[in-house]
Structures are given as structure tokens and as C-alpha cells.
Design brief:
The protein has 410 residues and is of the alpha/beta class. It has helices spanning 27-38, 45-48, 56-61, 82-88, 93-98, 100-113, 127-131, 153-163, 167-171, 175-188, 201-210, 218-226, 228-252, 269-275, 277-293, 312-315, 331-338, 357-371, 390-408; strands spanning 119-120, 137-139, 143-145, 194-199, 256-261, 301-305, 322-324, 343-348, 376-380. It has a 7-stranded parallel beta sheet. A two-stranded antiparallel sheet has the order 2-3. The protein is globular, with a radius of gyration of 21 Å. Bound molecules: coproporphyrinogen III.
């Protein structure tokens, strides 16, 4: 019997085998290591994390060659997983967010099941309004609700006064998220990179003014038309606090950051240009500048302007490394619009996961063919839905790996 000569891997990156198990660090050991790293004479937190075994998503984000297309799914920690529902049956939504132990547990859940190339810290974009002194509750069956919505310019004034000049101090009220990031990254034991995230200023403002989710966002859209100055004031405060919040996540161990502008598509293009894009640009610039000033290595930045694919050329110029793509455009057209050399993330229609496995595989092949050989982080075009089946997400991940590996080894 002849022994096959091993062919060298095309890149030095670690290749997770399908179903590769997470070799997680026990929580008590992770806590002890974090404490030791932070103690006087300790290494400092960032130096204490175990080395990264699978850097494929980070390489793709930087446009570097990869051995396979990395893949993760927005809302991969969520209600479609029975183990998530079982944690949620015992705790309120924001209690899970506020408990580093529970938040890290649910962040790890999808990594135990699937060969994912990235994790995203479990939290919500609506912790930012809470930091600005605005209550947010999560009502089962309805979603997020803001009992005292921002209805007038005077309400904006109250927020501006509440926050004051010290944005760092304001963001510190979210230090529980930073603790969750540190604990999760330690427990991940170098398995793959950990995303931090926040909502885009326009999306956060829309929830604050609307008082919750909406079909037409009438209050939010009326507000920018009737009170443009107050709208800009509110967007400014959200932006500056979000910069501090994201920088804090990187200090805590986040290795890549995503800004979710889930409501970008609600604005007509000229209003998107006025009320969203400048603030997205400021976040990219602000995060980079603050990290440089702190002597911390820059991390890749991802922007997901959902519903605004018509303005992808403008979004491509905001200072982000990766552009999130929804399912309303094919990756080939997205590349043509965003310009040469762009790195994309997306974009399978989440509802494709309701199809039988062979159809999911076929759609994955179509998506990768559309993409061509440009840098891609595979994802859905929006988040996982509560009625998705975990097995079908598994098929999506497996097929991305199999098809891209086969293509890259030819
Ligand atoms: C708009 C938005 C929100 N939150 C978020 C966005 C932007 C992304 C998007 O557009 O989907 C972001 C978010 N929310 C959640 C995450 C966790 C990380 C992940 O796995 O992606 C992330 C990244 C958990 C969550 N956030 C929420 C859930 C489900 C609620 C629950 O567990 O009871 C999860 C897992 C609740 C939430 N939070 C929000 C809404 C509208 C809802 C209700 C959705 C629903 O009920 O289907 C606001």
C-alpha cells in the first residue's frame, strides 16, 4: 500500500475540521487567569489570552489568502438552539446580557455544535440606550420596548445632560459587556476570533424615538424631518458613547468589530447620507484613533448597512475593512458596486435555511460562484430566525467549507 504524500496547505492557517470540537477552558480557570493577568505584575489581559488557532476570518477580513472561506451567522446564539432557550427559560433577556457567565455560556453554545470560524459576543445593540439613561425592556413575543421613548427635542436635551462630557464614563456603565468579552475569549481558548459589536447611531436612534420595533418607523422618520438639529445632537451622543464602548471591547479581548445599521434601509438615500453615513464614518475613525492612542493593535471593522445596498459605493468609503451584504443583491454586483479589492460578508437569504439540505447546498454553490475569488466572510444576509433548524445551519457551514476548500486547492 502506498503512503500518500501530504500536500502542503496553501496557507499556514489552521483548518477547522467539520465538527471540530471547542476545547473550552473551564470557567473557574478562565476567571483565575483573567485575575492573574490584571493583578499588579501580571501580563495584562491581552497578553494572557491563548494563541489563536483559527485566524481564517481575520485573514479574510484583511484580504489575505485563506485555506477556506470562513463562516459564521448573525444571531448564531439565539432561540433556534434548544440549549439557548433553556438558559432563557431561567433568566430575563437583559439578565443574560448582564451576567458575564451566562453571556459567555450562550456565546459558546453554537461553537460546540458547528465548525464556525467566528463567535459573536452575546448582548444586544439596545444596551446603548440603557447607558444613555433610557430604559429598554425585552417583552417576549413583542421584542424590545422603550417605555419612555424620545418624543421631543427636550427629551434629547435630557439625554445630553445625563451623558455630560465624559463619554468614557458613560460607556463604563456597560463594563459588564467588557467582562463578558474577556471571559468568553478566555474560555474560547483560541478556537476562533470573537466579534464585538454595536448598533449604528441611526438604528439606535430609530429604536429610541420609535419606542421599539416598527413596520414603518413613522415616529423615528418624522423626528429627523421635524427636528433635524435634535436628531443630530442625539446621533452625536450615541456615536461618541459607541466609540468608547467598542474601544472597551477591544481592550477586553474583542478581535474584530461589527456595526449593525439594521435600519439603514428605512431612510431614503439622501437622508441616509445625512443621518447615518457620517456617524458610521466617525465611529470607524474614532475607534481607530483611540486604539492607536492607547497603543492597542487595530482590529478589522465590519459595517452592515442592511437595506442600503443601493448606497454600497458610499458605504465602501466609510473607513471599514469589511462590508456586510444583505440578500437583496448578489455578491458579484456587490463587488462591482463596492469597488475592487473590497472584502464582503454575507449574504445567503436566511429563509434559504428553511429549504431541504440539497437546496441549501445548491444555493451555497451559487453564492460562492457569484463571489468569485474575492475575499469573503460567508454569513447570512441577516440573522438566524427562532424557527430555523440547527441542522440546516450546520449544512450551510459544512457546504461553505467543503466548496471553498475544494476551489482553493485546485
Ligand atoms: C436590530 C437589532 C437588535 N439586536 C441586534 C440587532 C442588529 C442585528 C439585527 O438587525 O438583527 C443585535 C443582536 N442581538 C443579539 C445579538 C447576539 C449575538 C448574535 O448571536 O448574533 C446581536 C448581534 C441577541 C438577541 N437579541 C434579541 C434576541 C431574541 C430575544 C430573546 O432571547 O428573547 C437575541 C437572541 C432580541 C432583540 N433585539 C433586537 C430585536 C429587534 C430583538 C427582537 C427580535 C425577535 O424577537 O426576534 C434589537
Amino acid at each position: 500500500m502506498s503512503v500518500p504524500t501530504p500536500t502542503p496547505a496553501p496557507t499556514p492557517t489552521f483548518i477547522p475540521q467539520p465538527g471540530a470540537l471547542l476545547d473550552e477552558m473551564p470557567e473557574d480557570e478562565a476567571v483565575a487567569r483573567i485575575q492573574a493577568a490584571r493583578a499588579p505584575g501580571g501580563s495584562g489581559l491581552l497578553a494572557a489570552f491563548p494563541p489563536l488557532k483559527n485566524d481564517t476570518a481575520l485573514r479574510a477580513a484583511k484580504g489575505l489568502p485563506v485555506s477556506h472561506t470562513p463562516v459564521w451567522a448573525m444571531r448564531q446564539a439565539g432561540r433556534y438552539l434548544p440549549e439557548f432557550r433553556s438558559v432563557r427559560s431561567l433568566s430575563q433577556f437583559f439578565e443574560v446580557c448582564r451576567s458575564p457567565s451566562l453571556a459567555s455560556e450562550v456565546t459558546l453554545q453554537p461553537l460546540r455544535r458547528f465548525a464556525l470560524d467566528a463567535a459573536i459576543i452575546f448582548s444586544d445593540i439596545l444596551v446603548i440606550p440603557q447607558a444613555l439613561g433610557v430604559d429598554v425592556v425585552m417583552t417576549p413575543g413583542i421584542g424590545p420596548q422603550i417605555p419612555n421613548r424620545v418624543a421631543t427635542p427636550a427629551d434629547v436635551e435630557t439625554i445630553v445632560k445625563f451623558v455630560g462630557e465624559d463619554y468614557t464614563k458613560c460607556a463604563q456603565s456597560l463594563s459588564y459587556v467588557w467582562e463578558a468579552v474577556a471571559l468568553t475569549r478566555m474560555r474560547m481558548n483560541g478556537h476562533c476570533p470573537l466579534f464585538g459589536f454595536c448598533g449604528a447611531p441611526w438604528t439606535i436612534m430609530a429604536y429610541m424615538v420609535q419606542g421599539g420595533g416598527s413596520r414603518n418607523w413613522d415616529h423615528a422618520k418624522a423626528f429627523v424631518l421635524n427636528h433635524p438639529e435634535a436628531a443630530h445632537q442625539l446621533l452625536h451622543v450615541i456615536t461618541e458613547v459607541s466609540i468608547e464602548y467598542l474601544v472597551g471591547k477591544v481592550h477586553a479581548g474583542a478581535q474584530i468589530l461589527q456595526v449593525f445599521d439594521s435600519n439603514a434601509g428605512e431612510l431614503p438615500p439622501h437622508q441616509l447620507k445625512e443621518f447615518s453615513l457620517p456617524y458610521l464614518a466617525r465611529i470607524a475613525e474614532g475607534v481607530k484613533a483611540r486604539l492607536a492612542a492607547d497603543g492597542v493593535e487595530a482590529v478589522p471593522l465590519v459595517v452592515f448597512a442592511r437595506g442600503a445596498m443601493h448606497s454600497l459605493d458610499l458605504v465602501a468609503k466609510l473607513g471599514y475593512d469589511v462590508l456586510g451584504i444583505d440578500w437583496t443583491i448578489d455578491l458579484k454586483s456587490a463587488r462591482a458596486k463596492a469597488g475592487p479589492g473590497c472584502v464582503l460578508q454575507g449574504n445567503l437569504d436566511p429563509c434559504t435555511l428553511f429549504a431541504p439540505p440539497e437546496v441549501i447546498r445548491q444555493e451555497v454553490r451559487r453564492m460562492l460562484a457569484d463571489n468569485g475569488d474575492g475575499s469573503l466572510i460567508a454569513n447570512l444576509g441577516h440573522g438566524m430566525l427562532p424557527n430555523h433548524s440547527p441542522e440546516h445551519l450546520g449544512v450551510f457551514i459544512e457546504e461553505i467549507h467543503a466548496v471553498s476548500r475544494a476551489a482553493k486547492s485546485t
